[in-house]
Amino acid sequence: MVKNVKFLTKQSTYYELQELLTTTHKLMAYPLVDDPSSMILLGSVSRENLLCLLNQIVGDEARHAEYLRRMQSKNQFHEAMEDGACKDGSLVKYCFSISYLK
């Protein structure tokens, strides 16, 4: 019987998933359990599916898309500042918090 079983839970973080994948190169599938205390088996997930999931969420393309989203948001904010949008009161709190951070 295996004593130190490597597993995932529904609450596993991306960091835990990454650690699991990097430390267990030979495993091709991982048990998915309800929680560590009960260890009720919900199913298993293949290594390939986990790698794809991790890449979609925190891979290069996902990080680049998030960067572009943030830059667009920043540009929209600066355009609103230049147009005087903060003077009408709609963005006063937001403008104050941003100017305070500068």
TrEMBL record:
UniProtKB keywords: CBS domain, Chloride, Ion transport, Transport
Residues in CBS domain copies: 1-61
The keyword Transport appears for this protein: yes
GO cellular component: plasma membrane
Transmembrane segments: none
InterPro entries: CBS_dom (IPR000644), CBS_dom_sf (IPR046342), Cl_channel_volt-gated (IPR050970)
Keyword match Flavoprotein: no
Leader sequence segment: none
MF annotations from Gene Ontology: voltage-gated chloride channel activity
PANTHER family, per the entry: CHLORIDE CHANNEL PROTEIN 2
Descriptive protein name: CBS domain-containing protein
Gene source species: Brugia timori
